[in-house]
Amino acid sequence: MSRATVRERVRYWFDNTMSRGTAALIGWLALISFGLILLVTVLGMWLTPVEAAKNNGFPGMLWMSLMRTLSPGKVASDSGSAPFVALMFVASLGGLFIVSALVGVLANGLKTRFEQLRKGKSRIIETGHIVILGWSEQVFTIVTELVQAHASDRGSVISILADMDKPTMEDDIRRHVGDTGRTKLVCRTGRPTEPTDLDLMSLDSARSVVVLSPQGDDPDAHVIKTLLALAKRSGDHPPVVAAIASTANMAAARLAGGPDVHLVDSDDTASRLIVQSSRQSGMSVVCMDLLNFDDGEIYLRSDPDLTGMAYGDALPAYQTATVIGLRGSSGVMLNPPMDTVISAGDEVIVIAHDDSLIHLADGMPEAREESILSVEHTGPAPERTLVLNWNGRGRQIVRYLDGYVAPGSVLDIASDHPDAATGFEGLRNLTVNAKECDTADRYALESLGLGVYQHVIVLSDDRFLAGHADTRTLMTLLQLRDMQTSLGERYSIVSEMHDENNRSLAEVTEADDIVISDTVIGLLLAQLAENQHLAEVFDYLFDSRGSEIYPRPAGQYVRPGAPVSFASVIESARRRGETAIGYRLAERVNEAPHFGVVLNPDKSRPLRLGPGDSVIVLAER
């Protein structure tokens, strides 16, 4: 290869300086301006000595050249010899080029800077903020709940980092969430898997971090890579909460995130809720009320006044809060044995509308003995359950259902999904049968003989996009409701959907429960972003071991139709070893948003529970 010439080297050096951006361009223009002004001044001193003398010599000529260069219009007022006018004209002509070039460079530089700001590439300067990494439909649920949680707080900040355009993120959140009140929302464009982009979020001073499972193929790989990037960064590490879509990837995610990361198993949580909702009508509504920040929330509270008291005696201790369990050195236990003594280091787990309302009552409300009944619960009998449609969490649902039902129960799966007929070995209580069926076809549904079933579960078909799958689910629900009406049959219907916006449409079908799986996971992530200690409580709540939530006939606890206080309901449940947390009114089961569910009622306010109403309790099966 031949050696570079001097011209090529100069050209290469010039190209490198020009590539340094706006500042380099302005520097070159300044240098050209200085050269032009100096040249015109020297020529003026040489060619026009008379005019130079009139204008105070070299300094005056230098000033005149500068003014003509910066303000070319001044040339019109010049007078003198032809060489002088010609020199001023040259300075003005050069000034036209320099000024126009400077304006163009500044305009382009400002445009580039504004575009960078628009893209959200600057580092945020916040403390105590909540960081959301990634983007999915769950982000709207999480932001809505966090805004609600911080409605009375000044200076709260939610920051989002996602591989999207900043204005697009802001517009989507405004459209889905609306006004964020006192909570400031800050969006930044970047990849959560890139350490340099993570540095934009000031993670050292963040309160907590939420890692979302994105939409698309293999979302868990993205979450795991983000957890690795968080673990490898230097500095302080705030608490991290992440959602994993597939149970099979939980072990890898734990290894990537380390012991300080709390993982939410989306498949497992949704599967448990679907199964529990199919067994206890209203279960999904109760869980949604506990998970959101609108009404009853779960709090952990240390109260020295309860130390030494038995758990059962402490149940009516709060007028506007409901005790549901204890958190001690051995962990969380909901509805512990009634004789469990509250130790000095124990925290009481309560449901309350706000932490400011958690205070001991002036006196324990009295239960009315004449209103309390003691009717034994009947044990579960073998039953038949029908599952319509199929998806990847179907086998988990079947195995969890096997742990609930009595021996000899039957589960039929009706679907044209290719994976719906295998993988059911090792079941103890269920006999599983698979049937080929197009669940959107009315005649195919009628051929199933739905009147022999006690429970019907409608799953979301994972062969379709979420929106189309929800549409097919709605069609199936409408068919089931019409069949129930025309044939006079009664069986509980629990359906799974993706989009919370479809709930209002699904309410027309009067399904007993509708589980919006994405919304449930979003609500859970928002709760854990606020308080990671609640992870143990929700793990216990969704686990089939230990006490669970059960809506049970009110007539087993208090006299139907008689005026009673909720304190009497609590006392009746306590005698059974159960913790009453609310009730459900049958006449309001179709009224959104609570569908008749009332959690944490005032203990002294009178109420009447009819034959169709339910008492919501924490109890062993």
UniProtKB/TrEMBL annotation:
Q: What is its main location?
A: membrane
Keyword Transcription regulation tagged:
no
Q: Quick one: a GO biological-process term for this protein?
A: potassium ion transport
Q: Does the UniProt entry include the keyword RNA-binding? A: no
Q: Can you cite an annotated GO cellular component?
A: endomembrane system
Which residue ranges run through the membrane? 21-47, 84-110
**How is this protein positioned relative to the membrane?**
Multi-pass membrane protein
Sorted UniProt keywords: Ion channel, Ion transport, Membrane, Transmembrane, Transmembrane helix, Transport
The entry sums up its family as follows: Belongs to the castor/pollux (TC 1.A.1.23) family.
Mind telling me what this protein is named?
Trk K+ transport system, NAD-binding component
